[in-house]
Write a structure and sequence with these properties.
- The structure is a single chain.
- The chain is α/β, with parallel strands linked by helices and 271 residues long.
- Helices cover 30% and strands 23% of the residues.
- It contains seven helices and 15 strands.
- It has helices at residues 24-33, 65-78, 88-95, 148-151, 156-171, 209-230, 250-257, and strands at residues 8-11, 15-17, 20-22, 37-38, 48-50, 59-60, 84-86, 104-107, 112-116, 127-130, 177-179, 188-192, 195-202, 235-242, 261-264.
- The strands form five sheets. A four-stranded parallel β-sheet has the order 4-1-5-7, sandwiched between helices. The chain has a four-stranded mixed β-sheet with strand order 12-13-14-15.
- The radius of gyration is 20 Å and the shape is elongated.
Length: 271
């Protein structure tokens, strides 16, 4: 993450800021000076958790506020709302206006959660935490004509394709990742060596195929352009993932001509 401004933040306890133990009230005051909104306890408004005096420890789901905060943050992530978590070093960097890595929350046994740093060599600050399939409600197919870019993400077909992509990559030992907070909101990302792949997923059920594919091409090329501007040394590979093969083969040639990979369920050839 790139700054405190606009975040609603809570603290698990005192924080070691630049080698000085700092109580929560002082941390909250300093965060407020940087444009954050401090909260005493975790709520669904919180977008950032600073975890301090439990550094390098595994915490469990008991009723102590500092441990339940991480459990609640993980629960929110599982619901599809990303909550950033930084440690004391990360908070110190944010107070200085510098970027800080968002920590992953990993299960370490029944009821245990462990904050860990995301791999620094994978994704180069582009890829966030593990990608999860979201639960969706039902809607009429005609709704796609109202708001193509947002309604597609609410379809069962879209999330089924995302789930199939996650499974396909997992079989190859590759973890599908979400975007980091503040980055372009691509649907899925992953890395292989120095290459970082960012993908837009498009369902075709109940939609105008041509319209969906054109929209997807524009979106993922825009994401790649934005990310290249922010990460000029990254080797970015834009990908458009479709629910099924396109009915017109010309899309494959078009994609190749603009440096875009085109793949579709269930085989995801070349991915």
């Amino acid at each position: 993450m790139h700054g405190l401004k606009g975040h609603t933040v809570c603290f698990t306890g005192r924080v070691l800021v630049d080698d000085v133990w700092t109580v929560r009230a002082t941390c909250a005051e300093r965060a407020g000076q940087r444009g954050a909104v401090p909260k005493t306890d975790f709520s669904r408004k919180v977008t950032l958790v600073v975890y301090g005096d439990l550094a390098s420890k595994v915490v469990t789901d008991d009723r102590r506020a500092y441990s339940s905060t991480l459990v609640d943050a993980e629960a929110e992530r599982n619901r599809g709302r990303h909550v950033c978590v930084v440690d004391a070093d990360g908070f110190s960097k944010l107070l200085k206006g510098r970027a800080a890595p968002c920590l992953e929350l990993r299960k370490a046994g029944a009821g245990h959660i462990r904050p860990v740093a995301a791999g620094t060599t994978e994704g180069g600050g582009i890829l966030g935490g593990p990608l999860r399939v979201r639960h969706t409600g039902r809607r009429l197919s005609g709704d796609l004509t109202l708001d193509l870019s947002s309604l597609d993400k609410a379809t069962t077909a879209h999330e089924a394709t995302v789930g199939a992509l996650i499974a396909h990559l997992s079989r190859q030992g590759v973890e599908a990742r979400a975007h980091v907070p503040g980055a372009p909101q691509f649907d899925a990302g992953w890395s292989r060596g120095e290459e970082v792949f960012v993908a837009e997923v498009k369902s075709l059920t109940g939609a105008r195929e041509e319209q969906q594919i054109r929209l997807g091409i524009g979106q993922v090329l825009d994401y790649a352009h934005q990310l290249r501007s922010r990460h000029p040394h990254a080797v970015l590979r834009p990908v458009l993932v479709l629910e099924r093969p396109p009915s017109v083969v010309r899309w494959v040639a078009l994609a190749g001509s603009v440096g875009l990979r085109l793949a579709w369920a269930p085989d995801f050839a070349d991915l």
